[in-house]
């Protein structure tokens, strides 16, 4: 996975509260960094999280997360969280994540979301407006 595989990234700085006494980021914070990146990805698409689904009563729910740790980040470093949608199915989508310090890949992974009814959590089709925004932004067809 290389930075050039992504069209979107969001920069953040490691805060004091995210590091242990040795100044190394606690592993659970990388999932928060990925979540921030995905939120900013939605914003870049023009699909703010509160309105991204286009269907009242439905939402995206995370159903799978996988992170692979390669090298630690440290307090006060600037990190770039790279995000892209690799697969866009009928009711699910797979995000690929790459967290970099300069050109060094620190963490990579994937997060799968399912579009579902908020009450029953039964899968529903991802709205066409969202699908079109993804296709246009990624300049490809991540269907599959």
Can you tell me the CATH superfamily? Hotdog Thioesterase
Strand content: 35-45%
Distance between the first and last residues' Cα: 20 Å
Low-confidence stretches: none
The percentage helix is 10-25%
CATH topology name: Thiol Ester Dehydrase, Chain A
Give the overall shape. globular
The SS-based structural class is alpha+beta
Keywords: Hydrolase
Family: Belongs to the 4-hydroxybenzoyl-CoA thioesterase family.
GO molecular function: fatty acyl-CoA hydrolase activity
Organism: Halopseudomonas phragmitis
Short synopsis of the structure:
It is built from two helices and five strands, in the order E-H-E-E-E-E-H. The longest helix has 17 residues, at 29-45. The protein has 144 residues and is an alpha+beta fold.
Describe the protein in words:
With 144 residues, the protein is α+β, with helices and mostly antiparallel strands. It has one domain: Thiol Ester Dehydrase, Chain A. Helices cover 19% and strands 37% of the residues. It is built from 2 helices and 5 strands; from the N terminus they run βαββββα. The protein has helices spanning 29-45, 128-138; strands at residues 8-13, 58-69, 78-88, 92-101, 104-117. The chain has a 5-stranded antiparallel sheet with strand order 1-3-4-5-2. A hairpin with a 3-residue loop joins strand 3 and strand 4 (92-101). The protein is globular and about 45 Å long. The mean pLDDT is 90.
